[in-house]
Structures are given as C-alpha cells and as structure tokens.
Amino acid sequence: MSEKKEPNIWQGFKAFLMRGNVVDLAVAVVIGAAFTNIVSSVVKGLINPLVGAIGTTNLDNYKSCLSESCPGNHGIQLMWGSVLGATLSFVITAAVVYFLMVLPMAKYLARVEARRKAREGTHEVIEVTELEVLKEIRDELVAQRAAGRDER
C-alpha cells in the first residue's frame, strides 16, 4: 500500500504565500496604511478648521453629558465628536478611493472589454463572410457538375 505523503508545514506555507490574492492583500494593507496618513492630514488640515469656524477645531471636544454633572472627564459622556470625526474620515477615504481608484479602473476595464468585443464582432463578421463565400463556391461547383452531367 502506498502511503500518501502529506506536505510539510513549510511547503504549505510557501503555497499559501505564492497565491496571488495574498500578495494583493498585503499590497492593499500597505497602501491603506500609507493612505491613512493622507486622510488624517486632510481631516486635520481642512475639515477640522472648517468645523472650527463654527465651534472648536478638535472634533473630539464635542461631547454630551448624560449624568447630572460632568466636571472634567468624570461622569457619563457621549463622545459624539469622535464619532463624527471618524465618520468624516471614512467618508473622505471612501470618496477618494472611489473617485481616484475604483471609477477610473472600472472605466478602463469597460473600454478594454468594449475593444475586445469589437474585435470579436469583427472576427465573427469576417468568419461569417468567409463561410458565405465557401457556400457559394460549393453551390457553384455542384451546379457545374450537374450541368456537366446534363451535357453528356
């Protein structure tokens, strides 16, 4: 009886690392980490000052107290400014990713697909035309043979 040889841990790990999606995921994480700095800078440099025109420049300062008194950092506080800041960061990140990465890539892929379909459509038309010509040649040959038999 032959015994199945199980791959060792290193071979399995190597196979895991060589998958394309693992490398893509690693690249996405690294780019996402670098992109976080850009978004944080936009929020701190542009959004917070715009919000600061109405109130404070630090959204973390916006909070509500649920208990009767909240001296300092005591009591039950809802830190809704932090949530607002995180939400703005998310929306800005999503907008930048969509408008600068997803939308242009989708348009590019649509153009590539349209070109491919156009090439295939032209190829099919040529094939159909060649097929039609071959059928006509066949019909002519059959007609010539029939005419040759009639003359005899």
How would you characterize the overall build of this protein?
This protein is an all-alpha fold and 152 residues long. Helix content is 76%, strand content 3%. The chain is built from three helices and two strands. The protein has helices at residues 9-18, 20-52, 80-151, and strands at 64-65, 77-78. A two-stranded antiparallel ribbon has the order 1-2. Helix 2 crosses helix 3. The mean pLDDT is 78.
Summarize the structure.
The chain has 3 helices and 2 strands; from the N terminus they run H-H-E-E-H.
Number of helices: 3
What integer is the average pLDDT? 78
Helical content class: over 70%
**General shape:** elongated
Number of strands: 2
Helix/strand/pairing category: mainly alpha
The strands making up the biggest β-sheet line up spatially as 1-2
Through-space gap between termini: 77 Å
The largest sheet, given as strand count, sense and whether it forms a barrel, is: 2 strands, antiparallel
Radius of gyration: 34 Å
Order of helices and strands: HHEEH
Provide the β-strand percentage band.
Answer: under 5%
Model regions low in confidence, pLDDT < 50 over at least 5 residues: none
